[in-house]
TrEMBL record:
Role this protein plays: This protein binds to 23S rRNA in the presence of protein L20.
One of the record's GO molecular function terms: structural constituent of ribosome
Pfam assignment, any one: Ribosomal_L21p
Keywords: Ribonucleoprotein, Ribosomal protein, RNA-binding, rRNA-binding
Alphabetical list of SUPFAM superfamilies matching this protein: L21p-like (SSF141091)
NCBIfam families, A to Z: L21 (TIGR00061)
TM ranges: none
Name used for this protein in its record: Large ribosomal subunit protein bL21
GO term, biological process aspect, one: translation
Entry similarity comment: Belongs to the bacterial ribosomal protein bL21 family.
One GO CC annotation: ribosome
Subunit and interaction comment: Part of the 50S ribosomal subunit. Contacts protein L20.
Native source organism of the sequence: Pedobacter psychrophilus
Length: 103
């Protein structure tokens, strides 16, 4: 059984007991959350597609930790002008574990 669910503006294919890194979510570590914007559910070969979401389908997950991704370096330069600027950015992520998919 798997589902395609929209989490924080992105679509993910999820299955039970899967670990996932998503954009930062509100909530404490250890809290359980539910996602009701399920776009597709597959159960034993039967596929249910929502318009735009499957009615009554939910995906429940548990927040494991909040963390940051790897640093991305942004470098701007204009040649022959002596202009250089270097910035870095680390995206905030939340690691979740999918507990169950219910139809």
């Amino acid at each position: 059984m798997y589902a395609i669910v929209s989490i924080a503006g992105q679509q993910f294919k999820v299955a039970k007991d899967q670990h996932l890194f998503v954009h930062r979510l509100q909530g404490e570590e250890g809290a359980s959350i539910e996602f009701d914007n399920v776009l597709l559910v597959e159960n034993e070969g039967v596929i249910s597609v929502g318009v735009p979401a499957v009615k009554g389908a939910t995906v429940s997950a548990k927040i494991l930790s909040h963390l940051k991704g790897e640093k991305v370096i942004i470098f701007h330069k204009k040649r022959r002008k002596g202009y250089k600027k270097k910035n870095g950015h680390r995206q905030s992520f939340t690691k979740i574990q999918i507990d169950s998919i219910s139809i």
